[in-house]
User: Fold this.
Amino acid sequence: YSIPEEMKKGSLIGNVAQDLGLDLKRLRSGQARIVSGESIQYTELKADKGILVVKERIDREQLCGATIPCSFSFDMILESPMELHQITIEITDINDHSPIFETDKINFDISETATTGARFSLTSAEDFDVGVNGLREYFLSENDHFILKQHANAEGKKYAEMVLEKPLDRETNPNLSLKLIAVDGGTPQRSGTVNINVAVLDANDNAPVFNQSIYKASVSENAPKDTYVTAVNASDADFGSNCIVTYHFSDRN
Assistant:
């Protein structure tokens, strides 16, 4: 038999008597019963009706993990005379898990001088479902700088990289917030999301700029040493030590 996981207790699996060509009287006189080597007996035989029903909740992921197909077997025994019938139940997957990331955020420190085409590996998502219900693809939220490239390793596990497509500029945007979305192929479709935080590191790519192109001042010829003449001011759009401005005269005399 083949049934989906997570069926309710008492749900019909199949009409064993009919499928094996056995009379209900034979089931009763033979004291039909099922014998399972499993620690949990997932099925129950209703001998008076000749049917097999779900006795305990069946979680395919708990029972088989990523193994497919997933199934378990047991014997139905009748006495006087002795009969033995093996029954195999295949458990099919339902889309009861969403893709999940092991962390809620990914942090990157990227220099504004990073060249286009630079790649940054992203954390992969896990989906405990299998087949079409498993992880299908990734999406990157819309942004001006990065695109997403998707790959699969030798085992077929999907992973993604973030690729720099447009140069960064710390002075324009020092921090970027993106989202990586993983989706499965089930119906309805399930998804998982992780936040990506990009801190743009400063490079010394800006020169100091004076607030005036020309300063004019006057001073009398007999003014004593250290007399105030005028003040100048320049600023630098860079950050940290790259924005510290010092002043010098081109003519030391």
In short: The mean pLDDT is 93. The helical segments are 16-20, 24-29, 60-64. Residues 4 and 228 are 89 Å apart (CA to CA).
